[in-house]
Amino acid sequence: MSNLKKNILKFVMSVSIPLMLYLIIDLWPGVYEFKVDGITVGYIDNKTLARDSYKEYISEIKSKFKLSDIKNSDLEFNKIIGSNINLSSSEDIKNNIKNSLNIDVNAKAFILNDKVVGYVSDIEEGKKILKELPDLYIKSGKIDKKNIIYIRVNTNSQYKDEIVKLNKISSKESIKNNIIKLNSSEETQVAKVEICLKDKVVEASEPTINVMQTSTLYLGESIKQEGLKGEDEVVKKEIFINGKLKQSNVLEKKSIVVAKPIVILKGTKNPIAASVPFLNKPTRGGFITSPYGERHGAIHHGMDIGEAYGAPITAALDGVVKYTGYNDIYGNMLILDHGNGIETVYGHASEILAKKGACVKEGELIGKVGSTGNSTGPHLHFELRTNGMAINPKQYIK
Hints:
By secondary structure, the chain is α+β, with helices and mostly antiparallel strands. It folds into four domains: 31-102, no CATH class; 106-196, no CATH class; 198-267, Single Sheet (Resuscitation-promoting factor rpfb fold); 274-391, Glucose Permease (Domain IIA) (Distorted Sandwich). Helix content is 21%, strand content 43%. It has five helices and 25 strands. It has helices spanning 3-27, 47-65, 90-100, 123-140, 172-183, and strands spanning 31-36, 39-44, 75-80, 104-112, 115-120, 148-154, 157-165, 192-205, 209-218, 222-225, 230-241, 244-257, 262-269, 287-290, 293-295, 298-300, 303-306, 312-314, 319-327, 331-337, 342-352, 359-360, 365-369, 379-386, 389-391. The strands form six sheets. Strands 14, 17, 18, 19, 20, 21, 22, 23, 24 and 25 form a ten-stranded antiparallel beta sheet that branches. Strands 6-8-11-12 form a four-stranded antiparallel beta sheet, with helices on one face. A three-stranded antiparallel beta sheet has the order 2-1-3. Strand 15 (293-295) and strand 16 form a beta hairpin. Helix 4 (123-140) crosses helix 5. The protein is elongated, with a radius of gyration of 43 Å. The N and C termini lie far apart (122 Å). Keywords: Hydrolase, Membrane, Signal, Transmembrane, Transmembrane helix. The chain crosses the membrane at residues 7-25.
């Protein structure tokens, strides 16, 4: 082979091989970095589609903001090899193109209750935003549109002509989300979206409680027969303001499953003759410092329970407050009537918390430990009386 042919072959090879490699790389499916005027606006896999989208967006801007012309931008596509970059969404690319275009447009500041919530191209766009705003609350509240009676959007809307950079123009969705965010607090609220609806729901109904007396149980004993919840079909008129329930009125209520009542059987049989314990300890802690019985040549009619000053005193049994007052011996005292001639007495309290005539439950707070009256230190004097006579309470405390 002559030197001329060899040189021609070398030249052809030096040109064709790089060209083939370029074509292979360029035509091989892959991801491109899409740039506008040197600024990356996204990652795409179809250059033709990207160019068309760019042209459509520029046409949209020209029409929307009545622009006569926009300077041509330099579109650049760089092939990315061996990368796992995710493709950009069309919305992201559109926003990035908008940010890359350093142009001024005639827009309107969209003002609600004296706060700028965004910039729009014209008044009609602002009206559409307010019209569509309730849909976001309907969607987030999972409201069935068939139940809606009315929708009201209350706000003071204004529009102010301004020349702003294109990238300050927000999408309708972005402005709506901004309004929702501002409305989440009453201090920053810019619009009141009121949605009134008529809703039908099934609600649980709590069982009633029936208390019945029985002579088969001793005083202080009780048996509880559990009930069952029922179900009611309830028709309500509800008003939501900015997604929060502000008013709810029951229009109709129909029982579909009747609740079974709770029955509490309470004993009435006198436990004293049978020496059956029926009283709760009237303090949470403490210890007996002086028992019932003879003391210093006299009878001590109750037992003293040493406790910290201010410690709680609780009712030893359900009863009615028969007396509260001050006595030189008992100090601040309280008497509970439990029926069947049975009473309990609580003395030397620092404070009485129950009022005469009040019904109190076993374990309910009725006073606080003190050292009033004839007392040498903080303690509770506790008595048990039957038909006016004091008896030893110790054996009747559970």
